[in-house]
Write a structure and sequence with these properties.
Layout lengths: L2 H13 L2 H9 L22 H13 L1 E2 L5 H11 L10 H4 L2 H7 L14 H9 L2 E12 L1 H8 L10 E13 L2 E2 L3 E11 L7 E11 L1
Antiparallel strand pairs: 1-2, 2-3, 3-4, 3-5, 5-6
Helix pairs in contact: 4-6
């Protein structure tokens, strides 16, 4: 191992606190499943990280809250997950990272999620909220590019971090609000254990302007 490999590995492992690991271990995730509302990402998009990030984000965010369910979304997310292979993450919780990043952003180490809480999802469904995204683009996160260029290598050769941006439009019973811009950070990795190609490791840092 190079000096930079040891240094970054140690820093990443230190960031995985005992509290976050314990919380993940005690939290269950749904069985992986697709549905008519949440289909598997097309094979053509699984070989390219940018294409996958755009396809995943679009399916994640395009939501008719009255006709789609949060449970189906999280089951689909587990179908699309790639294990978190960063240093300090035990194999026992590696496959939970994506669903927990979406469903439980208040767990230790979590960041804002685009997925509403169960109560908010129910409220949006009753209000007839429909959410659509447009102009979705993605590019490799500059911080990720920097540490890789310095010589650090992830355990998973497909792992990368994409910054996804676009516009989100909310409609409620015939009234459509002006589009707002959004940003989402999406960590990707190898989903070879499920269907090959890219999968999503975690989503977070959700912001809407």
């Amino acid at each position: 191992q190079t000096a930079i490999q040891k240094q970054v590995d140690a820093e990443l492992a230190k960031a995985e606190t005992a509290a976050s690991i314990a919380a993940a271990a005690q939290t269950s995730v749904p069985a992986p499943a697709t549905s008519k509302a949440y289909r598997s990402i097309p094979t053509a998009d699984r070989s390219d990280p940018t294409a996958y990030a755009i396809a995943f984000t679009t399916e994640l965010l395009d939501t008719n809250y009255a006709s789609q369910t949060r449970a189906a979304l999280l089951a689909w997310a587990e179908h699309e997950e790639a294990p978190n292979t960063l240093p300090g993450v035990p194999a026992s919780v590696a496959g939970k990272a994506l669903v927990l990043s979406l469903a439980d952003p208040n767990l230790p180490g979590g960041t804002p999620s685009p997925t509403p809480s169960p109560a908010q999802w129910s409220t949006d469904a009753e209000s007839g909220v429909v959410q659509r995204v447009s102009d979705v683009t993605a590019e490799v996160d500059p911080d990720w590019t920097q540490i890789v260029s310095e010589g650090w290598q992830p355990r998973d050769p497909l792992m990368t971090i994409e910054t996804v941006t676009g516009n989100v439009t909310i409609s409620t019973k015939g009234h459509t609000a002006a589009p707002e811009s959004f940003t989402l950070t999406l960590t990707l990795g190898s989903a070879a254990h499920l269907h090959g190609g890219y999968g999503a490791v975690a989503a977070g840092d959700w912001t809407v302007n």
